[in-house]
Amino acid sequence: MSEKHTLVIVVGSVREGRFGPVVASWVAEQAREHGGFEVEVVDLAEFEIPLSLPASSPKYAGDAYPRPESMAPLTSRLAAADAFILVTPEYNHSYPASLKAAIDWHFTQWTAKPVAFVSYGGAAGGRHAVLHLENVLTELHAVTIRDGLAFPNYFTTWQDGQPLDPAAPGYAKTLLDQLAWWAAALRSARETVPYPA
Ligand SMILES: Cc1cc2nc3c(=O)[nH]c(=O)nc-3n(C[C@H](O)[C@H](O)[C@H](O)COP(=O)(O)O)c2cc1C
């Protein structure tokens, strides 16, 4: 087993003028400095992700699931991931529809893999969004990471692409340490015994 795990950092918002890529870029920098991961940033704005789904469920269709051809690079990157960080804002006390659509077009790509969260927003720092994501990802048999990062009122607490809180890189390291532990444990388990989903 190679020492580095493939980490996919998902930019969950696709809104015009969004802040998501700034947060994702900082998270990617922390993950590269951590050293335990091959880091990829996947920006949902770069893919066609229709709200209308096929009749069948991706849970049972496997590779035969009829996704739009242009979604193939997204699907293969999710499939190749050993670990995920979802970077999410909070929209009306939840996470954006773009992220839900990307999740729902897939199933096995999330199964038996660890998922961590970095959120941002107003006073609540995106925590409502993360609570909802934890619930959703459990249905997909993903393992959610307890320690996340939440950035409340990011419009006053970030400058030049960096959070002003000097403790933030330390929180990121804790998240990444936990994510790396789960990535190794679950990758080894997936390679040893097929997950009984
Ligand atoms: C439709 C919408 C709903 C929002 N609802 C909330 C909310 O419930 N709580 C919150 O803290 N911020 C809320 N916000 C503020 C967003 O967290 C903030 O605009 C953030 O920048 C959005 O992320 P983005 O720039 O990556 O799209 C909302 C923003 C939008 C566009």
UniProtKB/TrEMBL annotation:
A GO cellular component entry from the record: cytosol
InterPro entries: Flavoprotein-like_sf (IPR029039), FMN_Rdtase-like_dom (IPR005025), NAD(P)H-dep_reductase (IPR050712)
GO molecular function, one term: oxidoreductase activity
Pfam families recorded: FMN_red (PF03358)
Ranges where the NADPH-dependent FMN reductase-like domain occurs: 7-154
Signal peptide bounds: none
SUPFAM superfamilies, alphabetized: Flavoproteins
Name under which the protein is recorded: NAD(P)H-dependent oxidoreductase
The organism of origin for this protein: Micromonospora globbae
